[in-house]
Design brief:
alpha/beta, Rossmann fold, six-stranded mixed beta sheet, 10 helices, 9 strands, disordered C terminus, binds adenosine-5'-triphosphate, binds magnesium ion, ABC_transporter-like_ATP-bd, ATP-binding, transport, cell inner membrane, P-loop_NTPase
Length: 283
């Protein structure tokens, strides 16, 4: 797959049809002791869309994601993924459900003792369904899919740049050919060029593989470039979930601060190219 240079222009793919919800979160409450993280979160994610989740640090973005993928139990409320409630499944069914999504955790989290190719191959080896030569071939394909080459296969995580680490983590998330991809701060810590390259990669993968993507990000450029809809977590709830142009009109202090500050205005100009919005490379 060729990876073309990124631009700051928003993805113009048609928005997916509503109604086909891949993820349904209803009246979710999550508490740790007396500390309330979520108090009535409602959110649907539709097949084929890129939904971004934003919110202040500690607002519960990662905890929401961990509940959706069944790593944590809600205090109350319900979560369905592909129509199934992960908390009610037996372990074999839960594993089958987990194989339908890929996860890139905040921080990348590669296994430092495993080479690049072994990191990518890990989910396939855990399946115990394929001979090792096929696993290696599949892992190599995924490596190429994220813009790396066979020469990178035997490198160790400590030898990789930040951008390469993120790509390897993404290749591992794609190892089982998921329909749904969760990305937690995928561009955090990358320089602007590496970040743009990563954004373009996600855009291409989404187009080619028809992925549904749930992405947590603080980065406005990434948000603007990729999102069909943005969900805003604040006050322990989702206070808005809509295309970014509509979200910015919602009267909420976090939205004002996040989307309407000076830094935000620069990123938002990319949504209005006809009125002289920022061009790629322009700061
Ligand atoms: N296992 C846990 N036990 C107790 N509190 C927790 C636990 N996990 C998360 N929390 C708390 O839940 C709140 C939400 O955390 P979370 O990691 O979801 O924030 P976040 O929105 O992802 O923040 P950031 O943008 O900094 O990544 C925080 O106050 C955190 O301390
Ligand atoms: Mg987080």
């Amino acid at each position: 797959m060729t990876v073309t240079p990124a631009t700051a222009t928003p993805d113009v793919s048609p928005a997916p049809a509503r109604g086909d919800a891949v993820i349904e979160v209803h009246d979710l409450v999550k508490r740790y002791g007396k500390a309330v993280v979520h108090d009535g979160v409602n959110l649907d994610v539709y097949r084929g869309e890129v939904l971004s989740i934003v919110g202040g640090s500690g607002s519960g973005k990662t905890v929401l994601l961990r509940q959706i993928v069944g790593l944590e139990r809600p205090t109350s409320g319900s979560i369905r993924v592909f129509g199934e409630d992960p908390t009610r499944l037996k372990s074999a069914q839960l594993q089958a459900l987990r194989n339908r999504w890929g996860l890139q955790f905040q921080g990348g989290a590669l296994f430092s003792a495993l080479s690049v190719i072994d990191n990518i191959a890990l989910p396939l080896r855990e399946l115990r369904a394929l001979p090792d030569n096929l696993i290696c071939q599949a892992a190599l394909l995924k490596l190429q899919m994220v813009g790396l080459t066979a020469r990178d296969a035997d490198k160790m995580p400590s030898d990789l740049s930040g951008g390469m680490t993120k790509r390897v983590a993404l290749a591992r998330a794609l190892a089982l050919e998921p329909e749904l991809l969760f990305l937690d701060e995928p561009t955090a810590g990358l320089d602007p060029m590496a970040s743009d390259g990563y954004v373009e990669l996600i855009r291409e993968l989404r187009r080619e593989l028809g992925l549904t993507v749930v992405m947590i990000t603080h980065d406005l450029d990434t948000l603007v470039a990729l999102s069909d809809r943005v969900a805003v977590l604040a006050d322990h709830k989702v206070v808005a979930a809509a295309p970014i142009e509509e979200v910015v009109k919602v009267d909420h202090p976090f939205i004002h601060e996040y989307f309407l500050g000076e830094r935000a205005q620069r990123a938002m100009q990319a949504l209005q190219p006809a009125s002289g919005g920022a061009q790629p490379g322009e700061q």
